[in-house]
From TrEMBL:
This is WYL domain-containing protein. PROSITE patterns: WYL (PS52050). PANTHER family: PROTEIN PAFB, PTHR34580. Residues 58-78 are annotated as: Disordered. It holds the Pfam family WYL. Residues 75-141 form the WYL domain. It comes from the Bacteria. InterPro entries: CBASS_pafABC_assoc_protein, WYL_dom.
Length: 167
């Protein structure tokens, strides 16, 4: 392990910059070669930054990261904005069997699972937490309607359910 020399850095990020830091650390968390360094960096950031980033940093490495793509897809900006403003999204979605449905979701996180990008969300139709693959979204729009619970509370419930299911 590298010697640690404390540095008196003050970290101030915009919401967009925090998204980048969280996304980068989430991807690094999946790289097996970075286990120890990742834990050190995530711990340092969690100890020195605002509650938001401390609660959203990934907990541990979880398999290889998917290869980066050139640029975001057509829905990333809308999804990120809805996550930050805690507003509902209306989407048309094609399931793995090819059936299309319309859903109202409360987006909580944007990340990777398996080989694709996913939205972790509360689904009003199913009255449960669900994951939606971005490549299966046909249409997406922000309803402008806030969801009734705070995102951090819902995100903690989503994460607890993922742990029970072995995600």
């Amino acid at each position: 392990m590298a010697e640690r020399e404390p540095r008196g850095l003050t970290l101030t990020f915009t919401e967009a910059e925090l998204d980048v830091v969280i996304a980068a650390l989430s991807r690094l968390a999946r790289e097996a070669d970075w286990d120890e360094e990742f834990d050190d960096a995530a711990g340092t950031l969690a100890a020195t930054m605002v509650d938001r980033i401390a609660s959203e940093l990934p907990a541990a490495p979880a398999g290889p990261a998917p290869r980066a793509r050139k640029g975001d897809g057509p829905h990333h900006g809308t999804i990120r904005k809805a996550i930050h403003t805690e507003t509902k999204l209306a989407l048309s979605y094609v399931d793995r069997k090819g059936a299309e449905s319309r859903r109202i979701i409360w987006p909580l996180e944007l990340g990777f699972a398996g080989a694709g990008e996913m939205i972790g969300a509360w689904c009003e139709s199913r009255r449960d937490f669900r994951h939606f693959r971005l490549d299966r979204i046909v249409t997406l729009e922000d309803t402008g309607e806030r969801y009734p619970q705070r995102r951090q509370i819902l995100l903690a419930q989503l994460k607890a359910g993922e742990m029970e299911q072995g995600f």
